[in-house]
Write a structure and sequence with these properties.
Blueprint (H helix, E strand, L loop, with lengths): L4 H10 L14 E3 L6 H11 L2 E4 L6 H4 L7 E6 L2 H11 L5 E4 L13 E7 L6 H7 E12 L5 H8 L9 H10 L3 E14 L2 H10 L13 H14 L2 E13 L7
Helix pairs in contact: 1-8
């Protein structure tokens, strides 16, 4: 049984956080899932595509779960530990895994993909996405929305003054890049962290929630979090997600 603060911290601070598999949190944290079912909708679109690109694929977990991949499937990733994981999962499926950096330009010629996807991208490069899409092709993405997990941000950093990503801004950016938004929906979802180790693991993995997070830097707040959970039960937060699908008009010249 995991009881003491020191035991929880030691375990959570030493486990690998490579990739986007959150199964280490099973039994320790929960998060509601969006009602639209991104993986199911992604699988439908992949089954119909001829050439697909998955941007910021992480460890390739989501793409590897797609039953039928297009004849040409490419994934990009910038973080070396994730690249290794993605290659081990995706190359046996016939997909290419390409290393890129954390800024545009995408390393592909224009108009080659009829489907571009990304799940929880750090940044969406709308102009580059529009460039590599074929006329009639679509960008399909689930993204982090405004005020996501702000309860954790406020706890560690103090009251927030920014809402983060905004679906309306995403629509405007897509349209500015010449894309037509055909679907846009958003939801807020309950999260529960049942011990301080779950909080540590989450903040080590999702590094933009509390930038520069480390156990040593936030020891006082982590001890406070541990006492709070011990006294009152799970720490409750709310994630924010939005789904966006944008199409390159068929009449555009590639």
């Amino acid at each position: 049984m995991r009881h003491t603060y020191d035991d929880l911290v030691q375990e959570a601070d030493s486990v690998s956080v490579a990739g986007w598999d959150f199964s280490w949190l099973d039994g320790r944290a929960t998060e509601e899932r969006p009602s639209w079912g991104y993986a199911r909708l992604l699988a439908r679109r992949m089954a119909k595509a001829r050439a697909a690109l998955d941007i910021q694929t992480g460890g390739g977990e989501i793409l590897a779960g797609v039953p039928t991949l297009p004849p040409v499937t490419v994934a990009t990733e910038s973080w070396p530990p994730n690249l290794k994981l993605a290659a081990s999962r995706l190359r046996p499926r016939g997909a290419w895994v390409v290393a890129d950096d954390e800024s545009p330009r995408l390393p592909f010629i224009g108009g080659v993909f009829d489907l571009v996807t990304s799940r929880h991208p750090v940044e969406t490069w709308w102009s580059e996405i529009a460039r590599v899409l074929r006329p009639g092709g679509c960008y399909f993405s689930q993204q982090v929305g405004p005020w996501s997990v702000f309860e954790l941000v406020d706890f560690f950093l103090g009251p927030s003054d920014g809402s983060g990503r905004d679906p309306a801004k995403a629509r405007a950016a897509a349209e500015s890049a010449g894309l037509e938004v055909v679907d846009l929906r958003s939801e807020r979802l309950r999260m529960e962290f049942r011990d301080v180790g779950a909080v540590i693991y989450f903040l080590r993995k999702v590094i933009w929630i509390v930038p520069g997070f480390s156990v040593a830097r936030y020891e006082e707040k982590l001890r406070e979090m541990h006492s709070l959970i011990e006294a009152e039960g799970p720490f409750v937060a709310h994630s924010s997600r939005f789904l966006i699908e944008a199409r390159r008009p068929s009449g555009q010249i590639a």
